[in-house]
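Q: My collaborator sent me two sequences in one message, no labels, and asked for predicted structures for both. Can we handle them in order? The first one she listed is below.
A: Yes, handling them in the order given. First sequence, followed by its structure tokens:
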Amino acid sequence: MKKSIIILLLLAAVLAAAWYLRGKFTPADAPLTLYGNVDIRGVDLGFRVAGRLSEVLKDEGDAVKAGELLARIDPQPYIDELARADALVAAAVADQQLKRAGNRSEEVEQGRAALEESRLVARNAERAHLRHLGLVGRGGTSQQDLESAESARDEANQRVKLNEAKLKLLEVGFRAEEIAAADAAVAQAQAARASAALHLDDTQLKAPSAGIVLTRALEPGAILQAGASVISLSLEQPVWVRAYVHESELGRVPPGSQVLLTTDGRPGKPFHGKVGFVSPRAEFTPKSVETPELRTSLVYRLRIVVADSDGSLRQGMPVTVSLDPTPP
């Protein structure tokens, strides 16, 4: 009895070794068969601005096209923000035009008139001072009146200088630094306006590419913070397959190799694909891959791009990969 058990154990060990070594000594010309799973990219979509969710246009399972509207939030606060930005742009442009045009001719003429008036006052004050100066020695006026006349003369002369300076400023116009500041104010207002317009546009959530709605996370009326996930989308493109190849077969599937992809649902109608990436790092085969002889072996991961996906491939679906015998 013990001898029979020993014989059975030895036989099982031999069979296990033969099964393990089968994949390591496969003839080079044997058909290459790999196993993997469909890998479809997904994205969680949300608004870049905060607000109240006013409408969700798609439900779970709905197919959407690239650029299609999925949801929107109440745009009124951002419409008001854009209107304020437009008003600030208009004010900045008006100030810029004023600085560039300089003072009006009427203002310059007014400055000249003020200067002539102050000169006339200065001449009268000078004559009054001379009269008091001639009379003070003969007792015709007091010393106090003479001093008052001198003060009036000096004040009038200073007013002449002040009006001359004002007229010069009016004739020269605004400084280059003031014009540059006005230009910068316009640029700042226009940038704020562009930001407000972008915020208004961000009240609409659109699909980045074609796909299927996986999750509708929120309903109208919800108050959202910027970045909160509203809809999860499974993208139609690209559709990839993750497969794994043993080191001994690595040279048979370089990047660019054409392959056939077969699923259990349509065994006689394979999809076509191309190896787009071969990992430079070895790893253990995931348990989800149906290759018992490789589950404990080091393998290299492949990323295969499916060229003719028709929407029937689903995330995680097992796929059998073989080399395409037809020329590319």
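Q: And the one she listed second?
A: Here it is, processed independently of the first:
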Amino acid sequence: MNPAPERTEADREKHRVASISVAAAALITAAKLAVGLWTNSLGILSEAAHSGLDLVAAAMTLWAVSVSGRPPDSGHTYGHGKAENLSALFETLLLLVTCGWIVWEAGDRLFFRQAHVSVNAWSFAVVALSIGVDYWRSRALKRAADKYRSQALEADALHFSTDIWSSAVVLVGLVGVLAASSLGWPWLARADAVAALGVALIVILVSYRLGRKSVDDLLDAAPAGLPETVAAAARVEGVREVRQVRVRRSGPSFFADVVVAVGPDSHLERAHAIADAAEESIRAALPGADVVVHVEPGAAEADPLALARAVAARHELAAHNLRVAEDDGGRSLDLHVEVPAALSLEAAHRRVSAFESDLRRRLPGLRAIVTHIEPVEDDDLAGKTDDAAERLLRQALESFQAAEGVALSPHKISVRSCAGQLSASLHCYLPPATPVKQAHDLTVRLERHLRAAQPDLGRVVIHVEPSGDPD
């Protein structure tokens, strides 16, 4: 598979910038080494050693950006981007070795022996040249690193930007040596060694930052805040839940694996369209990322009408004329709720409000619940007894118990007809240790069974009580 044209252009530009950096590092290393040996300045020699390792690091960066641009193959299915992370880690180790030598030599000159340092125009010229070249190439590397998200170029850019400050420290040390002979202050002659220690401190700090970032990427640590960004982008229309987000970085490339849940009734074509939309949204938030979205069916939604009736019964209320409405603002539920006629308005409102709160917890997707309160007699249902309907109801109760394998001992069964609609109420027993959810699920199934047996059944009140309680 051939790489995309824009990737080829990116590789060419990264290779060009890295090649120029190698040439600049070679020039600066040679100049510092020559002047350092001539003047015997530890500050300049330490800078020469530093620049020598810069040359090795720049060469390593050139190799890394060349390798990382190769397309995935059978042996490297995620590409070769980790070469840039390895290059940054290798550069860190080289910097730490340099620091060890600088600290050792500076300590020796400060406390055990004196070294004569010759300061002349060439000393200042080579340091000034180093600062100018490092400033130019750090900016060029930084632009390319930001444009193509290259960690190898970013490491080089950060490295060379700190070289500017370390060279400035050496410049201060040379001024101190020069002032020592001019002003007759011998202690200033040690400024060169102190400047070398300053270089070492700067390099150690840079090494820590580079090393930590390289190790994090090699261990696939998720960049801070990125999983949250990807999860937010994946929540497109049709996605019920973002269940899992995994993000990793390999060189300049990001990989995102996301698991989302859709409605259980979504057909294959719809699920595929939702996954495509999620991938496109994630790529918009994370340009150039390799994104894989896996779709799983979400949990089936509870029947809001049956659940509303069951919750009302739990609050010793009855619900009828239920209607679910959907619009752009979401889904709402309208229903009539029957309360005992003897209740005051305040008490009735309190009971219905408790019912609404319970129903909202069980149906969190509802935008609104609109209830109409109606009175009903406490001890009896309005209307006339319907014996034929009651016989059908008892037969339905027996068939339900046989199908479920439970003994509910139904009692206080009443079926009445009012205004052309049947209303039924009954009590049944369950073992005292039965979990509330299990009891609720059983009453929901029972109500559905009764309504299937008697389609004209309207109001249904099922009161569940623990076996052994007095009637």
